[in-house]
Amino acid sequence: MIQPRIDTLLEQVDSNYAAVLVSAKRARQINSYFHNLGEGTFDEFPPPMVKSASKNYLTIALEEIAQGKITYHTR
């Protein structure tokens, strides 16, 4: 089961499609952050903004969205 639930995510984003796009992009940023940790380059990739028991980057991104830590805008 996916945590957090989709109804919690939809309170923060406009649609399921937006939730997928935002969470996928943020998960890639978190992945890059952890892969660049040893190199000392932190300027491009911000660290995770929530404490999570999960090591899955997508789950961390979804938790950030559910807690309102991620904002986005459409063109």
Automatic annotation (TrEMBL):
Keywords assigned by UniProt, alphabetized? DNA-directed RNA polymerase, Nucleotidyltransferase, Transcription, Transferase
The EC designation for this entry is 2.7.7.6
GO cellular component, alphabetical, reads: DNA-directed RNA polymerase complex
Looking at the UniProt entry, the stretches that span the membrane are none
GO BP terms in the entry = DNA-templated transcription
Q: Which GO terms describe its molecular function?
A: DNA binding; DNA-directed RNA polymerase activity
Q: Which reaction does it catalyse?
A: RNA(n) + a ribonucleoside 5'-triphosphate = RNA(n+1) + diphosphate
Enzyme kind, highest EC tier: transferase
Under the heading Pfam families, the entry gives: RNA_pol_Rpb6
Return the similarity comment: Belongs to the RNA polymerase subunit omega family.
Q: List the protein's name.
A: DNA-directed RNA polymerase
